[in-house]
């Protein structure tokens, strides 16, 4: 009767334990929105520039060499590669948590107990063999193996391992995004360097033109055609133009060193060919359709992997409310003399234990972990949606910029041609006293500014070509 009562009480306790443990707090879930517009500029052409390899997209051999070197030497990229290896070890660690652990154990001890204790009295009255009592003090030698295993009933540990796998894949996509960013930074800096070289050449040509003009003005002053004011104004403009040289030279040094830093080397001259910069034609861009961005952009795939990991974290945290089943076992030999260790069955020991545990009271820590995982999962949803939205806006901005810069460059070219011609006209008119010297000065200044703006527009065109390639997700494959 007593035995039956004990079983009934244990059964009621187990049911209560399981019911209480399986009650989990409810949370508001949010599902990610992957909806994108159907097209860019009403085009359904699926040809996508992102599929072009970067060595085919960039044709300048000096630029290709710089990018190739950076992909091997850039310190930040190499740091990211080590982060990937760290993520890989996390997978191994998580996998080891749900596999049985087996180990060996050995030990030796010596113990002296009081004769007038229950253990001492019992040892004194027990013969090991005929006429042989327990030794005093009592040595103890043990050699055996043990195993522990938590049976992953609710997939708590397996979901933790899957989350680690997704974070590893996320780190790989993070590296790919880093590669696209690095390529874009080097390409943009390289085109900026070519633009500065061309601006320096324009300044040098203008210095020559203005020096000749100053010489003419000085001769005219000697002939009493103009006064000292005209000479000083021409001289001031020449000095101002000469000072531009040093601003450009400083910018060239800084841009070169920026590239050297990205390439992972100490400052040195960047080999390049700045000739015909204004004749460079940006590559033809095929944007494809918006849905392709989900597969091409590494940052979107990275956010997606982080979201999947966050979902698995919620499942793993929820499983902590459920009972966990653990099994531990051991087998070996134990004796008070080394020579008796292998005498079986007398020295053999073994055990097997099953544990069923579940949180019943004061589950605040588990709830906090569960709530935290849930909030992080919602965060990951918002981050994923934000990344998709940002990608779409980046692409549309760059497509619009490419179109507008093309029209702007055509007009700037016409402006430069007109002002370049006006320099000759104003100089001829000034020589024949049919134009004021201020007209000559203003014409030269406007021509210089327009040429600078033309170079700047060309640089922006090339940068837009680089940025749309990055925005579409090109460069990492």
Could you characterize what this model shows?
It is built from eleven helices and six strands. With 477 residues, it is α+β, with helices and mostly antiparallel strands. It has two domains: 26-98 and 154-322 and 361-471, Outer membrane efflux proteins (OEP), CATH 1.20.1600.10; 102-151 and 324-357, Outer membrane efflux proteins (OEP) (Single Sheet). The strands form two sheets. Strands 1-4-5-6 form a four-stranded antiparallel beta sheet, with no helix packed on it. The protein has a two-stranded antiparallel sheet with strand order 2-3. Helix 6 (156-222) runs antiparallel to helix 11. The longest helix is centred in the last third of the chain and has 68 residues, at 364-431. The model has no long low-confidence stretch (mean pLDDT 88).
């Amino acid at each position: 009767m007593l035995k039956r009562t004990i079983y009934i009480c244990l059964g009621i306790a187990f049911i209560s334990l399981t019911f209480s443990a399986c009650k989990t707090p409810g949370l508001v879930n949010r599902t990610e929105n992957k909806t994108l517009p159907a097209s860019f500029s009403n085009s359904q052409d699926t040809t996508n520039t992102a599929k072009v390899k970067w060595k085919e997209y960039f044709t300048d051999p000096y630029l290709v060499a710089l990018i190739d070197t950076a992909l091997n030497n850039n310190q930040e990229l190499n740091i990211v590669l080590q982060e990937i290896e760290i993520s890989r070890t996390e997978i191994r660690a998580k996998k080891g948590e749900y596999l049985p652990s087996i180990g060996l154990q050995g030990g030796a001890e010596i113990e002296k107990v009081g004769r007038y204790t229950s253990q001492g009295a019992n040892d004194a009255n027990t013969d090991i063999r005929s006429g042989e009592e327990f030794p005093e003090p009592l040595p103890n030698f043990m050699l055996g193996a043990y195993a522990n295993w938590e049976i992953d009933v609710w997939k708590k540990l397996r979901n933790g391992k899957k989350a680690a796998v997704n974070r590893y894949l996320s780190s790989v996509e993070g590296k790919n995004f880093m590669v696209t960013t690095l390529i874009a930074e080097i390409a943009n800096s390289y085109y900026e360097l070519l633009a500065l070289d061309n601006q320096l050449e324009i300044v040098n040509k203008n210095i020559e033109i203005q020096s000749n003009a100053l010489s003419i003005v000085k001769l005219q002053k000697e002939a009493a055609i103009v006064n000292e004011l005209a000479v000083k104004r021409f001289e001031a403009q020449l000095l101002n133009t000469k000072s531009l040289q040093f601003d450009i030279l400083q910018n060239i040094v800084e841009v070169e060193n920026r590239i050297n830093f990205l390439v992972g080397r100490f400052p040195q001259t960047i080999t390049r060919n700045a000739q015909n910069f204004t004749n460079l034609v940006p590559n033809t861009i095929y944007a494809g359709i918006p849905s392709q961005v989900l597969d091409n952009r590494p940052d979107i795939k990275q956010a997606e992997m982080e979201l999947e990991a966050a979902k698995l974290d919620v499942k793993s945290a929820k499983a902590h409310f459920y009972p966990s089943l653990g099994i531990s076992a051991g087998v070996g030999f134990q004796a008070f003399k080394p020579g008796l260790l292998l005498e079986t069955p007398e020295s053999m020991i073994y055990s097997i234990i099953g544990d069923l545990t579940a949180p019943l009271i004061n589950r605040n820590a588990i709830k906090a972990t569960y709530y935290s995982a849930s909030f992080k999962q919602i965060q990951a949803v918002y981050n994923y949606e934000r990344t998709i939205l940002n990608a779409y806006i980046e692409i549309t901005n760059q497509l619009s910029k490419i179109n507008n810069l093309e029209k702007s460059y055509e007009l700037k070219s016409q402006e430069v041609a007109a002002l370049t011609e006006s320099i000759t006209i104003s100089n001829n008119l000034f020589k024949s006293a049919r134009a004021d010297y201020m007209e000559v000065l203003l014409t030269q200044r406007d021509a210089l500014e327009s040429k600078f703006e033309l170079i700047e527009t060309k640089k922006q065109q090339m940068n837009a070509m680089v940025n749309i390639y990055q925005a579409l997700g090109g460069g990492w494959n």
